[in-house]
């Protein structure tokens, strides 16, 4: 019977080490769970290993000695792989999962039992499958962070890195609460932008639909009446009739052009050159560029600050930040920062040589490095810029709404004038006035 060297956490988070004779890894996991331990690592010892279970290493462990238990025949299962889903798990669902798991672990419930409880309570079927897969991996001896890493579509590199640091420091519940705060802030900012843009988008779609109906059905009937009168029509009316006739017979061309343009744009922006060009253009657009810049700065600061506060090294944290950012221009700047830090530079110095990070944020980062409070300063920067993004979005939408109303009014006014003008030009005797 082989001997296994194990590391586990007790319900209070203390690290427990020892050896155990068992038929396999699953049997070791089963015994550790019976002792209310959470397995961290299980490795096969040499043949000269001890034949009984040793005492846990930390003095604060509840058990004075671990008794040798009869070998349990545990079912073996292949490690669960990352699952593919029809729909992506929402950020809000992950935030709720973080908060509930943190509360359960903070109440002293072992991780395996807490995950089993959440699996039953989760209403999202996709997330439920993910939790089931993670639970199987953890019960098989995989660490929690490694099990999460198998599902990159749900748990990002940032998430996995913070959980790994929480496991190593014995503060998993605190880290999960921070992740919940992070996810909720991201979701709040995203929902604010969506809600602010929802009304203008609906207005454009509704107005475009109304104009299309008028061109396809209303205008042809009115122009048919004018044709029966046999009188010449004003130029503005003739232009409208020409546009209506073209739309009736060639609407599919217009639709095809729009669809082709949308598909072509999407494919172009997926290429490296197209994405870089589009992202540079975003930063140069009036008003929109400021929102994109502030949003990326806020995401950079919040992600880097959260990672550094949880003990992640600066280089590892920046590599994760680079993956979190959306804009390729900012990603390139982070790559340059990583290169200069490896050569002994600080974080703030390479930021002063670019034109994408605002100098106010750069100066605050420099002060944070000098005072040794960089994580706190970064989180404060993120809060400030998230507030600025919210205000900028509200300002733009307050400008867009009246502009859309004016534009739609001009279109409708043109149609109405073009249709009514011939009526005022009619001569009852058959000629023009």
Could you provide a short overview of the structure?
The chain is mostly helical and 433 residues long. The protein contains 15 helices and three strands. Helix content is 68%, strand content 5%.
Descriptive notes:
- By secondary structure, the protein is mainly alpha-helical.
- The protein has three domains: 1-62; 91-183, Type II secretion system (T2SS), domain F (Receptor-associated Protein, Up-down Bundle); 198-433, Up-down Bundle (Receptor-associated Protein).
- The protein contains 15 helices and three strands.
- Strand 1 and strand 2 (15-21) form a beta hairpin.
- Helix 2 (91-106) crosses helix 3 (111-121) and helix 6 packs antiparallel against helix 7.
Keywords:
3 domains; 5% strand; three-stranded antiparallel β-sheet; mainly alpha; 433 residues; Receptor-associated Protein
Strands, helices and their partners?
Elements: E1 3-9, E2 15-21, H1 25-34, E3 38-44, H2 91-106, H3 111-121, H4 125-139, H5 144-149, H6 157-169, H7 172-229, H8 235-270, H9 272-284, H10 288-309, H11 314-324, H12 328-342, H13 348-351, H14 359-371, H15 374-425
Antiparallel strand pairs: 1-2, 1-3
Helix pairs in contact: 2-3, 2-7, 3-4, 6-7, 7-8, 7-10, 7-15, 8-9, 8-15, 9-10, 10-11, 10-15, 11-12, 14-15
């Amino acid at each position: 019977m082989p001997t296994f060297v194990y590391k586990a956490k007790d319900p209070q988070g203390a690290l427990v080490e020892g050896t155990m004779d068992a038929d396999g890894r699953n049997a070791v996991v089963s015994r550790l769970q019976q002792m209310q331990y959470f397995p961290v690592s299980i490795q096969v010892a040499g043949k000269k290993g001890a034949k009984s279970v040793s005492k846990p290493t930390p003095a604060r462990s509840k058990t004075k000695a671990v008794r040798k238990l009869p070998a349990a025949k545990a079912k073996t299962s292949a490690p669960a792989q990352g699952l593919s889903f029809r729909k992506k798990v929402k950020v809000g669902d992950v935030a709720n999962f973080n908060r509930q798991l943190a509360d359960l672990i903070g109440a002293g419930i072992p991780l395996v039992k807490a995950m089993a409880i959440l699996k039953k309570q989760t209403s999202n079927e996709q997330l439920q499958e993910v939790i089931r897969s993670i639970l199987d991996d953890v019960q098989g001896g995989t660490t929690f962070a490694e099990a999460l890493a198998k599902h990159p579509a749900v748990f990002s590199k940032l998430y996995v890195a913070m959980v790994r640091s929480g496991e190593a420091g014995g503060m998993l519940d605190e880290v999960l609460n921070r992740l919940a705060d992070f996810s909720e802030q991201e979701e709040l900012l995203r929902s604010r932008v969506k809600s602010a843009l929802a009304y203008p988008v609906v207005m454009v779609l509704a107005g475009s639909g109304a104009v299309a109906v008028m061109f396809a059905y209303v205008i042809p009937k009115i122009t048919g009446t004018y044709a029966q009168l046999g009188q010449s029509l004003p130029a503005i009316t003739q232009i409208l009739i020409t546009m209506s006739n073209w739309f009736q017979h060639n609407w599919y061309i217009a639709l095809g052009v729009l669809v082709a343009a949308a598909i072509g744009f999407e494919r172009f922006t997926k290429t490296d050159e197209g994405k870089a060009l589009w992202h540079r253009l975003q930063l140069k657009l009036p008003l929109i560029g400021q929102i994109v810049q502030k949003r990326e700065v806020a995401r950079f600061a919040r992600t880097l600050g959260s990672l550094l506060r949880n003990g992640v090294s600066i280089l590892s944290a920046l590599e994760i930040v680079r993956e979190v950012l959306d804009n390729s221009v900012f990603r390139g700047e982070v790559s340059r920062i990583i290169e200069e830090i490896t050569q002994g530079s600080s974080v703030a110095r390479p930021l002063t040589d670019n034109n994408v990070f605002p100098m106010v944020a750069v100066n605050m980062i420099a002060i944070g490095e000098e005072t040794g409070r960089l994580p706190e300063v970064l989180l404060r920067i993120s809060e400030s810029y998230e507030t600025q993004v919210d205000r900028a979005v509200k300002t733009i939408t307050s400008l867009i709404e009246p502009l859309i109303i004016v534009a739609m009014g001009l279109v409708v006014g043109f149609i109405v004038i073009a249709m009514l003008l011939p009526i005022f030009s009619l001569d009852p005797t058959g000629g023009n006035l």
